Amino acid sequence: MIEWLVIGLILAGTTFMLVAAIGVVRLPDLLTRMHATTKAATLGVSLIMLAVALHFGEVAVVARALGVVLFLMMTAPVAAHVIGRAGYFVGTRLWSGTVKDELRPHYHPLTHRLDSGLERSDEPSAPVPRDPS
Amino acid sequence: MPIIILFCLTLLTLALGLVFLRLFRGPGLPDRVVALELFATITVGIIGLLAIATDIALLLDAAIVMALMSFMATIGFARFVERGGPRDD
Predict the structure, then answer these.
(1) The model's pTM
(2) Where do the TM regions start and end (chain A) (predicted)?
(3) Which of A30, A51, A131, B74 is the most exposed place for a label (fewest CB within 10 A)?
């Protein structure tokens, strides 16, 4: 019984990780690729670690496997946020079919400042308007 | 059971090959960092499968260290990319 459960979890986790790899190759730009790696790969590793915990069934191993899952679930969003932010800062091109980029009209790439569109021009801290390029 | 694990290891190796393709082709540095992170994540999965196949629970420690290293590497690369300023590679 446990063995069949382990086999099912292994197969599901492997499938999710393969889907994540295919997504990294096939998706068109950085942000959509990060969508594949963070969610699908984390779910795949979590399922495999659950299979490890079920297979061994000892307290120490279960704690370590759940520790791996917890650590991945905590760090994957942070890493994705940091690398996505860095990618936007360095001007990574978005996919040509992108419908909306709400950050672009308010963001100054050289100073990394955001404006709300309500600043008065005589404010000393008002950023210089960027070239329409 | 060993057949299933062998099959899954084959699939994960195929996944590693696909990620390596993106690592090789990726148009910019952030794409390559994302590919490297996925590489480490798949390696954690492979280590888990090996722990099941060989009945050695100690391999999980290697998996924990691998996950930690990939997180640190991603943060470091992101700082490196961010400090570099606008680029077009």
Answers:
(1) 0.85
(2) 6-28, 40-57, 63-83
(3) A131
